[in-house]
Design a protein that fits this description.
Blueprint: H1 3-13, H2 24-33, H3 35-55, E1 60-68, H4 89-103, H5 106-115, H6 121-126, H7 130-142, H8 150-163, H9 173-179, E2 182-186, E3 192-199, H10 202-260, H11 268-306, H12 320-340, H13 348-436, E4 445-449, H14 462-487, H15 494-501, E5 505-510, H16 522-538, E6 546-550, H17 558-571, E7 576-580, H18 588-592, H19 599-604, E8 612-615, H20 621-631, E9 635-641, E10 644-651, E11 654-660, H21 669-675, H22 681-694, H23 698-705, H24 710-728, E12 734-740, H25 747-752, H26 764-773, E13 775-776, E14 782-785, H27 795-798, H28 801-813, E15 816-820, H29 828-833, E16 838-844, H30 850-862, E17 867-875
Parallel strand pairs: 5-17, 6-15, 6-16, 7-14, 7-15, 16-17
Antiparallel strand pairs: 1-3, 1-4, 2-3, 8-12, 9-10, 9-12, 10-11, 13-14
Helix pairs in contact: 3-14, 5-9, 5-10, 7-8, 10-13, 11-13, 12-13, 15-30, 16-17, 20-28, 22-23
């Protein structure tokens, strides 16, 4: 792996590959996917709150208003005694809060309760107040009509205390009950205080509000002086605290400046940021340059180790000396080939030429070694520069980080000192003026608006309740959506495929209605067109005909994808066969046909070979090869075509020898070698005698003797066998005779030459049988190869040679073969993948777990099946950013 590849791999899997920053649009996509959950949550909250609002007892509120006038205070002695009144916002706020709390105090409410005669039992029975509600609840508890919740017990205690009041209790129980019904609210931007009383009885609300206001005015006149003393005490405490805080903040600020030596931070941070940017650019440029030189050096070292210096390309290294040496070497090589036609190896011209070639090769290797050394020196210098730049950039980053922390600390301390100083001055001024004017001020407090009889209840408030239910429902629904999204670890998007599987995503197929009459909708056609394009691109460098389509588990939509992809390829002009290879649960067969015959029946009833027969256009040597291969038989096949006799030897199904027995003498191997002066007459005679006595082929004997080089013998035997096969597959009629039995192999011939001639040529008889299994679909050029009756254990049948022959013949007929295989957790799926040129893993968006997909990839890799990529199926167009 090159240095640049190492860097990329580190960036992908190492610390540099940090989590991708979450964008705001990602949150919106989550809400879009989970919108129905949010809607359901909102509806539930609205329904619950609506029912509760309807069942709640109406509550009324009566309001009376009190005006709190500004306390008139003379200015300090330095000002005109006759004018210049002043006030403090802070003291005004304290005054209003104090009035609010005093109105709800127990002494004021005790006066009000007595004025309202709340302790009169007869009056209590006539008024539907909280007291009567408590009594009614207690009676219902006793009668068993209501469940005794804890708050009923609390109310019962109050009722019992009211019935049996303690003699030494200064405040009756009804004072506490009345306190829970009173609310005091200052009206903003005014000097008014609103006293609200809430109760189910509107008349009681009005009377209580007016009585409480009047009782407070009486109480206020008695406690004014005590209140003023409390104000002074409060301000004294606050000033002492603020003074201490101010001293501490000033001391901390002074200590920080002395410790850090800071007087100005402006401009330092901008300079540091520019330095970091410049160093980062230089570092990246150095890494890229070093990676390029490293790649060149490795390529030259590989050439030097392999000895293939003749393969040097000027694109690797611009070196005129190497270019000239290569040209001289090619010229010398061509000259040697010309000399070999005239002279033998020991001729002086040949010896001189060979010496020249060796010298050129040695010079070539020396120049390459020099070039490698120069490249390594440049790489070493670049690596040193990279280390220095990285160190400098790290120092700059640390310096910038430290500077930012100091700047933040400086601003915080300065702001704290300024704030504390302002608060302290305000409190101190207020306190001094209040001491001067102690006892002089007088507040203007009076009742300005009496409470009126309320006609409309304040509770429940349907509009407000429903609005809050909507807000809470949305909050809960959104929170639940994000929680479920966090818990949902399924593969949903293309980035999940790359993150968990490190495989390319071939296409994103949306959810779509079932395909009708072979026509693809616009939403489905485009992803399938992209998938078909990817398949064609991947087939440029290698053959890609048989494609195995499977999934980690069942119900991922692979069958639908096979049908759609097959239709798309067929509509593009390719002949396509879709094979129902899920022999336990066939799906494609049920869609296209009701036939019960298919692959399983064909493999069970695979034809046997007759001892004798005729060869013609309907039954050829290709049929004989495939039948013997499938049956795994051993024996001889005698073929006669006109005046030509042929003999083919088979060992356990594999053809191990093929000869033309009455080949014309001038075309025989020995004569060709003799004419081309590859061997001498004596060597040929010795080889013929040895081959006859040992019952071996002449070519094998010559290889054993070392009379002919393996390369030259392989070329000649390949031509002989190709010529023999052409005659065997010629349209000329003939006959054959098969004799079963053990045969003696010629090991050298089998090992070196015969493997490439297995299962060649057309097999018209078997092709006709297979064509009878094919089912036409409604799409032109699209055919189905049905599975046949389901099998409980299809593994032996799939592993048989018959299935291999079936797929091999389909490859000759069709441009693409799509295998709709079982899920990868089934035992037969890895076996099926080995028959394919590439496998496509179908993952169901939002359903398939990463663990399942990873396990599927491991199974395919263990089986040695090439994985083309992943198809993310049934992607919701409304939820996916791709659409």
């Amino acid at each position: 792996m090159s240095r640049s590849q190492d860097f990329n791999q580190f960036s992908r899997n190492g610390k540099m590959n940090e989590e991708q920053e979450i964008h705001l649009l990602d949150y919106l996509e989550v809400l879009k996917r989970r919108r129905w959950l949010v809607v359901a949550t909102v509806v539930c909250f609205l329904a619950t709150v609506g029912i509760g609002t309807f069942l709640v007892q109406p509550i009324y509120q009566a309001s009376a208003r009190i005006k709190v006038g500004k306390e008139q205070k003379l200015a300090p002695p330095t000002f005109n005694p006759g004018g210049g009144y002043w006030e403090s916002d802070y003291s005004e706020s304290l005054a209003f809060k104090t009035h609010s709390m005093m109105i709800k105090s127990l002494p004021v409410l005790a006066r009000s309760a007595k004025a309202l005669t709340l302790d009169d039992p007869k009056k209590q029975e006539k008024k539907p107040t909280v007291k009567n509600n408590i009594r009614e609840n207690l009676e219902k508890i006793k009668s068993g009509l209501l469940y005794p919740f804890p708050f009923f017990s609390f109310s019962a205690e109050k009722s019992e205390a009211k019935a049996n009041p303690q003699k030494d209790d200064p405040y009756p129980v009804w004072v506490g009950i009345l306190q829970g019904e009173v609310e005091v609210v200052p009206i903003r931007d005014t000097r008014l205080i609103e006293v609200n009383v809430v109760d189910p009885d509107p008349v009681f609300c009005r009377d209580a509000a007016n009585t409480i206001c009047k009782s407070y005015l009486q109480y206020l006149s008695e406690s004014r002086l005590d209140s003023f003393r409390n104000y002074l005490s409060f301000f004294s405490d606050e000033i002492a605290k603020m003074k201490k805080r101010l001293q501490e903040s000033e001391q901390n600020f002074y200590d920080f400046k002395q410790k850090e030596g800071i007087f100005s931070l402006e401009g330092k941070k901008d300079i540091s940021a520019k330095d970091i940017g410049s160093l980062s650019g230089d570092l990246l440029t150095t890494k890229v340059e070093a990676s390029g030189l490293e790649e060149k050096a490795r390529e030259l070292e590989r050439m030097l180790r392999g000895g293939n210096t003749e393969e040097f390309s000027p694109a690797i290294l611009d070196n005129k000396i190497l270019f000239d040496l290569r040209a001289d070497l090619i010229k010398a090589t061509i000259e040697r080939e010309e000399l070999k036609k005239t002279y033998k190896e020991k001729h002086p011209s040949m010896v001189e030429n060979n010496a020249k070639i060796r010298e050129l090769k040695e010079s070539f290797r020396r120049e390459i070694a020099k070039a490698i050394a120069a490249l390594r020196q440049q790489i070493s210098m670049l690596w040193g520069k990279e280390t220095r730049l990285a160190s400098q950039m790290k120092d700059k980053e640390n310096e910038n980080l430290a500077l930012s922390g100091k700047e933040l600390r400086y601003a915080m301390l300065e702001r704290e000192v300024t704030t504390n100083k302002e608060l302290y001055q305000a409190l101190l001024t207020n306190f001094k003026e209040m001491e001067v004017l102690k006892g002089i001020g007088q507040e203007d407090v009076r009742l300005v608006e009496e409470a009126q009889l309320p006609l409309v209840p304040i509770k429940p408030r349907p509009t407000m309740n429903m609005f809050l239910a909507l807000i809470v429902g949305l909050s809960v629904g959104i929170g639940l959506s994000f929680f479920l999204e966090y818990m949902d670890r399924s593969i949903k998007e293309e980035k999940d495929v790359d993150r968990y599987l490190q495989l390319p995503t071939l296409s994103l197929v949306p959810k779509e209605e079932p395909i009708a009459k072979g026509e693809l909708s616009g939403e489905l056609a485009e992803p399938l067109r992209a998938l078909a394009t990817n398949l064609r691109f991947q087939s440029l460098g290698k053959p890609l005909k048989t494609i195995f389509i499977t999934g980690p588990v069942g119900n991922v939509g692979k069958t639908t994808l096979v049908k759609a992809l097959g239709s798309m390829l067929a509509q593009s002009g390719f002949r396509v066969a879709i094979v129902d290879a899920d022999f336990k649960k066939p799906s494609l067969t049920n869609v296209f046909t009701q036939k019960n015959r298919g692959i399983t029946e064909f493999l069970r009833e695979f034809p046997s070979l007759e001892n004798k027969g005729i060869l013609n256009n309907a039954f050829s040597f290709g049929d004989i090869q495939r039948i013997i291969f499938t049956r795994g038989k051993s024996g001889k096949v005698k073929i006669v075509k006109g005046n030509k006799d042929f003999l083919a030897l088979f060992d356990r199904g594999n053809m191990v020898d093929l000869c033309w027995e009455n080949r014309p003498p001038e075309k025989r191997l020995g004569q060709i070698l003799l004419r081309t002066k590859a061997i001498e007459k004596e060597s040929l005679d010795d080889a013929l005698d040895l081959a006859k006595s040992a019952n071996r082929r002449v070519g094998s004997v010559l290889l054993s003797m070392g009379s002919v080089s393996p390369e030259r013998m392989e070329n000649l035997l390949t031509l002989h066998l190709s010529e023999t096969l052409n005659l065997l597959f010629s349209p000329e009629e003939g006959f054959y005779e098969f004799t079963e039995g053990e045969i003696k192999k010629d090991g050298l011939v089998v090992e070196s030459f015969m493997d490439k001639f297995q299962l060649q040529g057309n097999a018209p008889w078997l092709e006709k049988k297979i064509s009878g299994l094919l089912v036409d679909t409604e799409t032109v050029n699209l055919f189905l190869l049905p599975s046949g009756p389901p099998l409980h254990n299809p593994l032996p049948l799939i592993s048989s040679r018959g299935f291999e022959v079936l797929l091999s013949m389909c490859r000759d007929i069709f441009d693409y073969i799509l295998l709709d295989g079982p899920p990868l957790f089934m035992a037969d799926a890895p076996v099926l993948s080995q028959y394919s040129d590439g496998s496509i893993l179908v993952v169901k968006a939002g359903v398939t777990k990463p663990e399942e997909a990873k396990k599927a990839v491991e199974i395919l890799k263990a089986a040695g099946a090439p994985i083309m990529g992943v198809v993310l199926n049934e992607v919701d167009r409304k939820k996916s950013k791709y659409w």
